[in-house]
Amino acid sequence: MIFISLGKMRKKPNKELAGQATKITDELKNMGIKIIGWYWTLGRYDTAFIFEAENEKEALKTSLAVADFVATETLVAIPREEAIKLL
């Protein structure tokens, strides 16, 4: 399953915080989370983290791992081609 996690930083970003985030993403990879993309964004959210996880419970682990740094809103993503088949 693919997920898109939109985040608002809880603290002002700095190099130390970025290093901690990199460490957390390495841990997520070891837990079976496949990172598709990670972006800093302008607008309502500060980050967009796109990843693949086996199920919703595994995806929840990503939000829990970064809860000290980022408030997240996570969406389940369905590929357009699959969604059209449902019409």
Number of spatially distinct domains: 1
Strand content: 25-35%
Helical residues, percent: 25-40%
Identify the strand order in the major beta sheet. Answer: 2-3-1-4
Number of continuous helical runs:
3
Quickly describe the structure.
The chain has 87 residues and is an alpha+beta fold. It has three helices and four strands, in the order βαββαβα. β2 and β3 form a beta hairpin.
Describe this structure in words.
The protein has 87 residues and is α+β, with helices and mostly antiparallel strands. The protein has a single domain (2-85), classed as Alpha-Beta Plaits. The chain is 37% helix and 33% strand. The chain is built from three helices and four strands. The chain has helices at residues 15-30, 56-65, 80-85; strands at residues 2-9, 34-40, 47-52, 70-77. A four-stranded antiparallel sheet has the order 2-3-1-4, with helices on one face. The longest helix has 16 residues, at 15-30. It is globular. The chain starts with a strand and ends with a helix. The model has no long low-confidence stretch (mean pLDDT 92).
